[in-house]
Write a structure and sequence with these properties.
This protein has 199 residues and is of the alpha/beta class. The protein is built from eight helices and five strands. It has a five-stranded parallel β-sheet, with helices on both faces. The chain starts with a strand and ends with a helix.
């Protein structure tokens, strides 16, 4: 039996600057295959998307629920563009509820990933990295709170993203996005939950 996995997000889900096999949803699928679990990955994500743009993208692309597993990682572009955090909460909650709906209204099949900290990347050189970190933490406090309230799974990838400050191999060639090896770390963090969902 082949399970269906829907990944919703932005550049971090579509894997800007890495190959398709290096994207974290695809790496989760590869890891699951080693556990004897076959997964078909569908991705609705684009670089630069904010919460509202992701919703537009979902509507434009269309979904065919129910999926056996759904992941959601969104918000960095809201932070980057200086968008309101109260607006983010509202939009995030809407998208989380959509993710639950797409998972056949089973909250246990939904995984939310935290927003990574782009302030440690070469791209952010000369910017206020402390301010970026604080804002990312504030946005993550919102998505964590709403995820816990809903009862979905949460994977905190932000500490891994911050290791890129001292490990350049975790950053892709564009100097901003994660490399395949960072995505592998994210996939490893999500794997136990994915196994639990699909076993």
């Amino acid at each position: 039996m082949k399970f269906r996995y829907l990944a919703l997000g932005d550049s971090y889900t579509i894997g800007e600057s890495v190959t398709e096999t290096e994207r974290f949803p695809n790496q989760i699928a590869s890891m699951l295959l080693k556990e004897g679990v076959e997964v078909e990955v569908s991705i609705i994500a684009r670089t630069g998307w904010t919460t509202d743009e992701l919703w537009q993208g979902i509507q434009a692309q269309g979904v065919t629920p129910p999926y056996d597993m759904v992941s959601l990682l969104i918000g960095v572009n809201n932070q980057y563009r200086g968008r309101d955090i109260a607006e983010y909460r509202e939009d995030f909650l809407f998208l989380l509820n959509k993710a639950i709906e797409y998972a056949g209204n089973d909250v246990n099949k939904v995984i939310v990933l935290s927003i990574p900290d782009w302030g440690v990347t070469p791209f952010a050189m000369g910017r206020n990295s402390t301010q970026i970190a604080n804002e990312i933490d504030a946005f993550n406090a919102v998505n964590l709170e709403e995820t816990m309230k809903a009862g979905a799974h949460y994977v905190d990838v932000t500490p891994v993203s911050r290791k890129a400050l001292s490990d350049p191999s975790l950053i892709a060639g564009d100097g901003l996005h994660p490399s395949g090896s960072m995505y592998a770390e994210w996939a490893s963090l999500a794997l136990p939950i994915a196994v639990e969902i699909l076993k």
